[in-house]
Design goal:
It is built from 17 helices and no strands. By secondary structure, it is mainly α. It is globular and about 55 Å long.
């Protein structure tokens, strides 16, 4: 296995550019400046990496959905909105295709990219403190309201912080315990300040699933990594319990109580949850009226404004796909995730990273019930990591993989 010192200078430059590119996806929002910066970084990588165009499963799965976005223009309520959605995804895939070409032939590719996501997540956490101020982050946790959408959507920030913690927990639990796991503390404060229910659900689900898969994975007598990890988590938990008694995280607690009341029908449902319930209801109704092809990708804001709501999405990726893309669009998009899910399950006992990616995919699908992210740039960056891992596992473990590939090349 190639270590970090055996990489060439140009490869290390690409690693650094990939890190800044990923961070840029969150730090600068979806402005023209941000898009220009992303393309500039991708262009540098293109020049440095000796780009060669090869079609992989990643391109087939993602571009078929992008193509469907364009196709819905013909029956969409507003064709331009479908074209805009398709263009956003297409531009992102152009960037990630450059990255895919480089990392497909780079040793330890998925490990490098996963670390980039983790440290990129912590970078955004630190940037959040600088942007809003430490005092304001803490005051938000004390119940003075949540931070506002300024440099990015607060739910996106919270969920990125949650993923950074989950990845860090994986390395501490499955590989080597690191004292840097305590970086989870400032990340947790940011999650509290965003008051993102999706982020806290994703975090809890991710940690629980990692522990579950660790407990069923051999050898049974090696409990030291689990013990070390649990010690760190218990320490963090005790600290959070103490802080919560002082009034911290009260805003997030109240929002979680509102969500629970919506599910159980008992207690007071907050305004935010009521709105999202209405968005889902309208989205579902439009799906029932247009079940096969939907009303056009990106057109849910039109359906909501017709019912007197603001110009926004349904806040539910599953309903969004059914509403805008119909059954065909739903299959087109979620076939990507179910393919990856099935593949990672095959390699679960052969590769430890498959555990992380399986948990990650489950968390994405689960939290899609409260977030629309089919057009987010980071979605296709993360999908790139999953597909690179599947390709690597197929090359390593599939007997027929190289034979089938050679036949395709010959034809």
């Amino acid at each position: 296995m190639q270590n970090s010192q055996s990489y060439s200078i140009s490869e290390k430059i690409v690693f650094g550019l990939t890190y800044t590119l990923f961070v840029s996806m969150f730090m600068f929002g979806d402005t023209n400046l941000a898009n220009g910066l992303l393309f500039a970084q991708a262009l540098l990588i293109l020049v440095i990496s000796n780009f060669k165009l090869n079609v992989h499963r990643y391109h087939i799965f993602c571009f078929q959905f992008c193509l469907y976005c364009y196709m819905t223009t013909f029956w969409a309520l507003n064709g331009k909105m479908s074209i805009d959605s398709g263009n956003t995804i297409f531009r992102t895939l152009m960037i990630t295709s450059v990255l895919y070409s480089f990392y497909a032939v780079t040793p330890n590719n998925v490990r490098i990219l996963t670390k980039i996501v983790m440290w990129g997540g912590y970078t955004i956490v630190i940037y959040t403190y600088f942007f809003y101020g430490v005092d304001r982050i803490v005051s938000m946790d004390e119940g003075s309201g949540r931070i506002t959408n300024r440099f990015n959507n607060v739910n996106t920030i919270g969920m990125l912080a949650a993923i950074a913690i989950i990845i860090h927990a994986y390395y501490s639990m499955f590989e080597k315990f690191s004292k840097t796991i305590f970086l989870a503390i400032p990340a947790l404060f940011v999650i509290g300040a965003t008051q993102s229910r999706k982020a806290i659900i994703e975090l809890v689900m991710g940690i629980v699933l990692l522990y579950f898969f660790k407990s069923i994975r051999g050898p049974k007598n090696n409990l030291l990594p689990i013990a070390k990890f649990l010690f760190a988590m218990v320490t963090i938990l005790l600290l959070l319990i103490y802080l919560s008694q002082t009034g911290l995280f009260i805003g997030l607690t109240e929002r979680m109580e509102g969500l629970w009341a919506s599910i159980t029908g008992e207690g007071e449902v907050d305004v935010s949850t009521e709105l999202r319930d209405e968005y889902r209801r309208i989205g579902w109704q439009n799906f029932l009226e247009n079940p096969i092809f939907g009303i056009g990708i990106g057109n849910s804001p039109i359906a909501l404004t017709r019912e007197g709501f603001k110009h926004t999405y349904t806040h539910n990726n599953i309903v969004e796909m059914l509403c805008c893309g119909g059954i065909v669009g739903f299959i087109s998009y979620y076939s990507i995730f179910f393919y990856l899910l099935s593949q990672e399950m095959k390699f679960l006992k052969k590769d430890k990273l498959a555990t992380l990616y399986l948990v990650w995919i489950i968390c994405i699908i689960a939290t899609d019930w409260g977030a629309v992210r089919y057009f987010h740039k980071d979605t296709y960056f993360i999908l790139m990591i999953f597909f690179l891992h599947v390709d690597e596992m197929k090359k390593k473990y599939s007997i027929n993989y190289r034979f089938q590939k050679s036949r395709i090349t010959t034809y």
